[in-house]
Write a structure and sequence with these properties.
Blueprint: E1 8-12, H1 16-27, E2 31-35, E3 49-51, H2 58-67, E4 70-73, H3 80-87, H4 96-102, H5 105-114, E5 122-125, H6 128-132, E6 141-145, E7 155-158, H7 164-170, E8 176-180, E9 184-194, E10 200-202, E11 206-211, E12 214-220, H8 226-242, E13 247-256, E14 261-267, H9 277-280, H10 285-293, E15 307-313, H11 325-329, E16 334-338, E17 349-356, H12 360-374
Parallel strand pairs: 1-2, 1-4, 2-3
Antiparallel strand pairs: 5-8, 6-7, 6-8, 9-10, 9-11, 9-13, 11-12, 12-15, 13-14, 15-17, 16-17
This protein binds adenosine-5'-diphosphate and magnesium ion.
Magnesium ion (MG) binds next to loops.
Length: about 375
């Protein structure tokens, strides 16, 4: 049965993705209880209630279970025990099983392969023996920690097998995957919603550029051919179906210079590369998450305006001073989103700007003006 406006939803995690979920949910008349130990979490301040408790605090979990009609999450590293505990008495989407796979690069890649999807060549490196016994492997490659990596953290490039031992040391000898480095034509991603009944709705494919391992710019529509676009949508849909997913799922892809589509990774939640939907689609990825976890019909994913999204990192707060917002807001088709974080640190995601235009070229031109206004 659908959970209707007027009900309470639970959100595990209080970062910016949780915050934008809260805004979407409350706009639609839901209340949201956020669980996040950080008393200053971006989502907490906008929530109907914020439980500043640890994720395994049983009193807090009991309170959520008693008061919420459905529970979701904004990050994949919520402890599995938390989800299992809640799921005994209240619907939790996505499931503990999905999060378990998404928390672990090796399991995730093995899962993609099990569906017959292409990935970069990879092998598990979990001990010195794995390095010793490594057979033929295509270098250059990237050693990535299997767990808790994000924004390029926990990754070391290895030009040859001679670099492996030092790279393994550098990441603290944690379980890793070694992954072939792909010659990229471009990177794209898909954010989709999937209902409990299995209906999938995909937002338009986003084309992403990264700087220093962190997403910098997303443009939509993506410039890939119809043929590659169909492969991307098909792969993302198969992944969601294969997981029997319910909620919003993001899948990142590499497109190689020889036009191969390779799955990179997935995120069981809205995604930074889907922030463009807030201003350029009929439904945002956060509204879609509200709809999917509440058992409501999907909203239209249609793009109504070409868009270029620029991530605002803490780096543009020199000495902690905020950038010149007035100069930015003079650009009337640039939409500012800030996450309410008080401390700006290099690489920290503070907000984003969606630059709209009648054409993508216009949107990209506006993004350049936004950069000039803020840098
Ligand atoms: N195998 C690879 N080949 C080429 N580029 C890569 C590869 N792995 C990662 N990258 C680059 O680093 C970025 C971040 O890596 P990713 O595996 O997505 O980790 P994270 O969890 O940090 O997002 C990618 O979006 C891509 O730009
Ligand atoms: Mg990534």
């Amino acid at each position: 049965m659908a959970v209707l406006p007027g009900s309470k939803l639970g959100m595990l995690g209080g970062g910016q993705l949780g915050r934008m979920f809260v805004v979407a949910a409350r706009t639609m008349g839901f209340d949201v209880i956020v669980l996040d130990p950080d008393p200053h979490s971006p989502a907490g301040g906008l929530a109907s209630e914020h439980l500043a408790k640890e994720y395994d605090d049983t009193d807090a979990l009991d309170y959520l279970a008693r008061n919420c009609a459905a529970i979701t999450t904004e990050f994949e590293n919520i402890p599995a025990v938390t989800l299992a505990y809640l799921a005994k008495s209240v619907p939790v989407h996505p499931s503990a099983k999905v999060l378990h796979i998404a928390q672990h690069r090796k399991l995730e890649k093995e899962f993609f392969r099990s569906l017959g999807l292409g990935t970069a060549e990879f092998v598990a490196i979990e001990s010195d023996d794995d390095i010793e016994n490594l057979g033929e492997f295509p270098f250059p490659a990237i050693l990535k920690t299997s767990m808790l990596g994000y924004d390029g953290k926990g990754q070391v490039v290895c030009q040859s097998r001679d670099d492996l031992a030092a790279a393994f040391e550098q990441v603290g000898r944690k379980p890793c995957v070694l992954e072939q480095r792909i010659d990229l034509a471009c990177e794209v991603s898909v954010v989709l919603g999937r209902s409990e009944q299995g209906e999938v709705t995909c937002f338009p494919i986003a084309e992403n550029s990264h700087a220093g391992g962190i997403l910098d710019v997303t443009v939509v529509p993506a410039s890939i051919s119809n043929k590659l676009a169909a492969q991307v949508i098909d792969a993302a849909t198969r992944i969601a179906d294969g997981l029997d997913y319910c909620g919003v799922l993001a899948v990142e892809f590499f497109v190689s210079t020889d036009d191969e589509v390779l799955v990179n990774e997935m995120a069981p939640r809205p995604h930074n590369s889907g922030h463009y939907t807030l201003d350029a689609c009929f439904t945002s990825q956060f509204e879609q998450q509200v709809r999917m976890v509440s058992g409501l019909p999907a909203g239209s994913c249609e793009l109504h305006t070409p868009v270029a999204m620029w991530n605002l990192l803490g780096d543009i707060w020199p000495d902690g001073d905020a950038p010149d917002w007035e100069a930015l807001l003079e650009l009337e088709q640039a939409k500012l989103h800030l996450y309410g974080k008080t401390e700006a640190r290099p690489g920290r995601k503070m907000g984003h700007v969606n630059c709209l235009g009648k054409t993508l070229a216009e949107a990209i031109e506006l993004l350049e003006k936004v950069r000039q206004a803020l840098l």
